[in-house]
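tool_call predict_complex ligand=zinc ion
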Amino acid sequence: MDETNSESTAGGTACAACGKVAHAIPLTWVSSRENGETRYFCDTCARESIRAIEQRLDSSWW
Ligand SMILES: [Zn+2]
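tool_result ok
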């Protein structure tokens, strides 16, 4: 499967919290959709902000 729709940072996806860039989104990263924009958090930041993310998302998302 090719992801031709790349609206993320060129060459990779950056963590919305710490700016860490990954060329492919690891399974440990968490995506959060805010105002039609998808943000990604690395595993470290996801662990710290997981509560905030959960509060913003509908429970059905999980
Ligand atoms: Zn991060």
